[in-house]
């Protein structure tokens, strides 16, 4: 850490700060301003709650009543256009809540032509209130960076667990596939396609419950029957219609769910290759030509094939996710308790404390690229 500040009261008699530890390249003055703005918003939400808007207040903001007794920020990970920090904020109940603060470099986002993806992620995540999707609580901006205050999932990525285990048994894989199904059911009902399912984009909360993250490729379709056309996603997971530029709808997520299921059960995706063109050609040939692992059960193979049918409209779950829930591979799985999060997760992450980051891999920060302000206005509504 590069330094710290604090010890003096915030202005306007809001309260006293204990300490805010800075993680480069964040500005202490900026972080102080952001926390103050957040507190004002939360105070207003708290008053609304007292005025009878309790349920709406809870849905809009799960951290109503937050006070600035202390705020500690530590860098815990890197993201594509910036870095991720932890914001440890203490409430007036003297209990800690830890949030992830995603920090994006505006110039880098613009130079990499990712403006639309970043704005889509903000818009979609703010509208989502689902147990299987990470929460975005509030966003901020300044001349150089964008800030997204998000739910923190200290259990780390499912990919990390998969790497450590080698491959999952069927009950474990079923648990995480069910999570993707529930998230897709929620999104598809709202005409939102996700387009980037993979183990790296599913995080575990402190109890081991999975949640989808990284909605940069997500898109809200304009109407039933409309399509998206951007070539995006992870090479091993893209559907044939993406490669052939035939347009995309909710069916692309079902294809990726089949690939996701294969990877969880085998340890690697079925079309993995160092050459993207070889990967795309293999995808176009279809899953029927795969060399299936001997240990993979017939019911699992059949479900993967149903998700990965060449015709998007024939994929299991297209137009009705319930059809996938009723597949024999999910027989005996209690979706009701799963949705209520009363089912015991197969993997309980080891957590040493609220700000524990041991379950995350460390990557070089990309935040130093394209430094400098960007006041072109593309983020005016951020």
Notes on the structure:
- Keywords: ATP-binding, Kinase, Nucleotide-binding, Serine/threonine-protein kinase, Transferase.
- Helix content is 33%, strand content 17%.
- The chain has helices at 28-50, 54-60, 106-111, 115-127, 158-165, 170-189, 240-243, 251-266, 276-285, 298-307, 322-325, 335-339, and strands at residues 3-5, 20-22, 66-79, 82-91, 96-105, 136-141, 145-151, 156-157, 192-193, 202-204, 210-212, 219-220.
- β3 and β4 (82-91) form a beta hairpin.
- α1 (28-50) packs antiparallel against α2 (54-60), α6 (170-189) packs antiparallel against α8 and α8 runs antiparallel to α10 (298-307).
In summary, what is this structure?
Keywords: ATP-binding, Kinase, Nucleotide-binding, Serine/threonine-protein kinase, Transferase. This protein has 382 residues and is an alpha+beta fold.
Q: Helical region count? A: 12
Query: How many domains, in number, for the residues?
Result: 2
Rg, Å, rounded: 22 Å
CATH topology value of the largest domain:
Transferase(Phosphotransferase), domain 1
Low-confidence stretches: 1-28, 49-73, 90-94
What is the CATH first-level class name of the largest domain?
Mainly Alpha
Sheet with the most strands: spatial strand order: 3-4-5-7-6
Task: List key phrases describing it.
single chain, 382 residues, Transferase(Phosphotransferase), domain 1, 2 domains, five-stranded antiparallel beta sheet, three-stranded antiparallel beta sheet, 12 strands, globular, disordered N terminus, ATP-binding, transferase, cGMP-dependent protein kinase activity, ATP binding, Protein kinase domain-containing protein
């Amino acid at each position: 850490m590069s330094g710290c500040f604090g010890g003096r009261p915030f202005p306007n008699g809001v309260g006293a700060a204990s300490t805010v530890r800075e993680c480069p390249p964040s500005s202490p003055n900026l972080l102080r301003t952001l926390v103050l703005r957040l507190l004002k918003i939360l105070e207003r939400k708290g008053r609304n709650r007292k005025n009878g808007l309790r349920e709406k207040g809870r849905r809009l903001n799960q951290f109503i009543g937050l006070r600035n007794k202390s705020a500690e920020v530590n860098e815990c990970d890197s993201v594509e256009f910036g870095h991720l920090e932890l914001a440890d904020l203490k409430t007036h109940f003297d209990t800690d809540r830890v949030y992830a603060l995603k920090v994006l470099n505006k110039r880098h986002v613009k130079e990499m032509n990712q403006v639309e993806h970043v704005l889509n992620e903000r818009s979609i995540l703010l509208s989502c209130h689902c147990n299987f999707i990470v929460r975005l609580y509030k966003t901020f901006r300044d001349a150089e960076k964008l800030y997204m205050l998000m739910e923190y999932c200290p259990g780390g990525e499912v990919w990390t667990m998969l790497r450590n285990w080698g491959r999952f048994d069927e009950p474990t894989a079923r648990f995480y596939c069910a999570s993707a199904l529930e998230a897709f059911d929620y999104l598809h009902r709202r005409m939102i396609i996700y387009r980037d399912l993979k183990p790296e984009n599913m995080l575990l909360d402190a109890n081991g419950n999975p949640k989808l993250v990284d909605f940069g490729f997500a898109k809200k379709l304009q109407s039933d029957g409309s399509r998206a056309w951007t070539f995006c996603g992870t090479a091993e997971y893209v559907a044939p219609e993406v490669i052939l530029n035939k347009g995309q709808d909710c069916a692309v997520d079902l294809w990726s769910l089949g690939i996701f299921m294969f990877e969880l059960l085998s340890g690697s995706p079925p079309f993995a290759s160092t050459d993207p063109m070889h990967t795309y050609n293999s995808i176009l040939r279809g899953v029927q030509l795969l060399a299936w692992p001997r240990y993979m059960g017939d019911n699992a193979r059949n479900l993967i094939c149903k998700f990965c049918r060449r015709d998007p409209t024939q994929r299991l779950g297209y137009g009705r996710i319930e059809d996938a829930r009723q597949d024999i591979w999910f027989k005996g799985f209690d979706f009701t308790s799963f949705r209520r999060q009363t089912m015991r997760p197969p993997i309980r992450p080891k957590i040493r404390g609220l700000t524990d980051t041991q379950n995350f891999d460390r990557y070089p920060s990309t935040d130093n690229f394209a430094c400098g302000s960007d006041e072109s206005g593309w983020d005016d509504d951020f």
